[in-house]
């Protein structure tokens, strides 16, 4: 029978449904932080000395948020939960309107490494941001069956079930959204109308497709969940929940002992594309924010900031793999993480993950204090693993970092699968990590 925190998992599924793009994920995270008393700071504005409180910065589809405990010294280390807001998907090209054989279609580009077949024969919506004159951006979310990438009928591909499905990334993944001749500007006009703005004012856009099937519980006892974008909005949601809890605990203990470290959530964009951007983990965003916290908000020196980094620990949180019941041979035989077994500590001696012995010790202590189970993921020697923001952040800032994540199946599919217990266990671990 399931033991999960139903309220937490319900809230996660709502968050996933409301966040079809990284821009929506950031907006929804910010709304939750605002409700908890956090205040947005602008990168281009001066930051004043602060005596405490919650703050956040948004840049594109990335958000950095932190809580300053009252009395925190300028050299106080940071406890950072790192995650990413983006997921592999189909994104609209600059000249969006195309077509063939009497169909109106939308030109798309592959983002990240999606499981291509998972995007076939699904009802797809449209979402993202429209950038208007003057640089202002507005979000759009068309959450209904609007497009579809139809698969070729088996009658016209007789060998598909024996030889496997072969997809040409340019030719076979263009979605249809109507019949008739190509209409230049039709998609932007449609999106602008849905967003309540004039198409003439839309000078740029970042639009992408999403599966409109709602997130749901799965299984006889509802012990599983199926949803899009679990990789990696599960970690973003857990980080927000844990940071809000840390702020509440910090406010309640304002007259007592200060936190041993400053809790930070860093949710980056572009992890699935390599993290090398102004909003990715490979860019300067996190370091810039942490430097300004230590020096502008806490009144410290460059030496104080260097001391703070020396005392900083990053918990890089990204999805991990559970053993697949139909492909057990693809997994390392001595390490078989399962769904609902708790977050997995991820290791790779070639630094695809940043965990080392110190990181393992810190994580073990966190789990013991939180009273949650943990397990271990390591890739099979004959099968290279993926990577995360962990090694990138560690190298960028020179800070102790370890990699964790809840387990899943169907990673990078348009619809992924996980355990209903694990999201709350991850959030509990993040809260314990923030508490030091």
TrEMBL record:
**Keyword terms, alphabetized:** Aminopeptidase, Hydrolase, Metal-binding, Metalloprotease, Protease, Zinc
Segments passing through the bilayer: none
Q: What is the enzyme's class at the highest EC level?
A: hydrolase
The domain of life for this entry's organism is: Bacteria
Keyword field contains Ribosomal protein: no
State the Pfam families in the record. Answer: Peptidase_M18
InterPro entries, sorted: Peptidase_M18 (IPR001948), Peptidase_M18_dom2 (IPR023358)
Cofactors that this protein relies on: Zn(2+)
Q: Which residues form the signal peptide?
A: none
Single annotated GO MF: aminopeptidase activity
- Give coiled-coil spans as residue ranges: none
Q: What is its EC number?
A: 3.4.11.-
Which family does the entry's similarity section mention? Answer: Belongs to the peptidase M18 family.
- Name-wise, this protein is M18 family aminopeptidase
Origin species, per record, is Catenulispora pinistramenti
Q: What is the lineage of its organism?
A: Bacteria, Bacillati, Actinomycetota, Actinomycetes, Catenulisporales
